[in-house]
Amino acid sequence: MNNCFEDIQSLCRNHGTEYFGVADLTQVHDEVYRQGGDFVRPYSKAIVFGIVLQDSVVNLVTSHIQGAKSIYSHHAYQVINTRLDILTSWIADIIQKNGFSAFPVPASLRFDNERICSIFSHKLAARQAGFGWIGKSCMLITPEHGPRVRWGSVLTDAPFPAVSKPMDEQCGKCQACVDICPVQAFTGEPFREGESREVRYAAALCDQYFQNMKEHQEEPVCGLCLYVCPYGRKNR
Fold first, then answer.
1. How many helices and strands (H and E) does the chain possess?
2. Residues 6+ away with beta carbon under 8 Å from 37
3. Which stretches of the chain score pLDDT less than 70?
């Protein structure tokens, strides 16, 4: 089993992940089940890994130059999501070949249109693995790169060494992501376990904003909350 885990760890390291860990999901089982239902019920652990976005690409979200946001969308979403999805597929293959179950979670795929959510929260897994905290933007904030990380997850029942050590929230009184949101989708409330996402974030406002951009033949991207976070901008 150690060889299996080491193979996965090496795979992630060799393909550009800066974060890698195994999250214990037992403490957040109800939340996981509420979001993904029976698809995710059997799994008590999540292998979670993160790829850091290039700062030069993130900076494009504030550019008014034609085509800048298309480049941002291409590199920060399409390319990175593809890299994450390929890794999840490889990891799930390794786990299955070693006799255990694995569920490769898509990097970015809407599972429920009514709730506007995916089948599983990568940021919840990253939080449980101790990589950061969920900020007022509802993104996972790391001390080193802020929210400038995209995450992938593979759910499993394999007996890998897992942790559950969420970081304390460190946003304090900062409201940068709240203030910059063009549709005021964030309420400014901090993350509290057990509370619904709606306490902090109106996903429908964000979703409608993207729909409006599509209708006006604009690139449907934003990323201002990701760009402005002081933890992501420090030393950059």
1. 10, 6
2. none
3. 1, 235-236
Quote the Cα angle for 151-28-22, to 5°: 45
Evaluate whether 23 touches 45 at the Cβ level (below 8 Å): yes
Where do we find the tokens 């799930």? 92
d(CA 233, CA 236): 5
What whole-number distance in Å separates Cα of residue 101 and Cα of residue 155? 8
In this predicted structure, what is the pLDDT of residue 20? 97
Alpha carbon distances (Å) from 180 to 21, 62, 74, 112, 229? 32, 11, 23, 27, 10
Q: What is the pLDDT of residue 234?
A: 80
CA-to-CA distance for 180 and 37, rounded, in angstroms? 34
Instruction: Write down the pLDDT at residue 173.
Output: 96
Residues 46/101, Cβ–Cβ less than 8 Å:
no
Report the candidate in 154, 109, 156, 152 with the shortest Cα–Cα distance to residue 16: 152
**Unique residue bearing structure tokens 């402005």:** 228
pLDDT digits (tens, 9 = 90+) for 98-140: 999 999 999 999 999 999 999 999 999 999 999 999 999 999 9
What torsion, rounded to 10 degrees, do the Cα atoms 51, 56, 61, 62 define?
A: 150
